[in-house]
Amino acid sequence: MSNVQRSIVLDVHALAGAYFAPISLQLGAGEMLCLFGASGSGKSQFLRALVDLELHQGAVFLQDVEQQQMLANLWRRKVAYLPAESGWWAVRVGQHFATQPSSDALASLGLEEAILAREVDGISSGERQRLGLLRLLVQRPQVILLDEPSANLDPDSTLKMEQVIRAYLHEAQAAAIWVSHDPLQRERIADRSMEMPLMQREGAA
Prior knowledge:
Order of helices and strands: EEEHEEHEHHEHEHE
CATH superfamily of the domain at 8-86 and 132-195: P-loop containing nucleotide triphosphate hydrolases
Radius of gyration: 17 Å
Structural class: alpha/beta
Helix content: 25-40%
Mean pLDDT: 91
Number of helices: 6
Low-confidence stretches: none
Distance between the termini: 36 Å
Shape: globular
């Protein structure tokens, strides 16, 4: 992890939900935090609370602006969430992009421009995840929340995705939280890693 001082992009104060224990953290510009932990520790719910899709307590600040002080749709463009399965609602891939990705942007993830004309039902889960990432990045978010985005990718596509996200964080001075169960991946991409704390259940010893 670098000792370079970073300006704070995301500031989380005692954020807690029904399925995850309170968490406080700060993310600096260009920083990648990898999150891991046992099944049921609430990793996905934590990301959904950060993007204001899950009921929660505590406070989240984006560059000193509190989550509830910003319109929800604007917050979700600035704090963008890529779930384990991206949503698709139209027939063809290109219909899901307000701004069509460039051929270079597609190529950086191992995709060809022709994929934009294909039907969503005819592309693989790995292609969907890479396209979902491109769809997210055209919004120019300040924080990216990634829920195991490379789970369905082969090793070469995984490395391409890692490089694209790393380059975006540097270029946009954005920050990211990446849920990853792969210790080798965390070693490659993380500025720091955090294990999701298990919630203390009532009646537990």
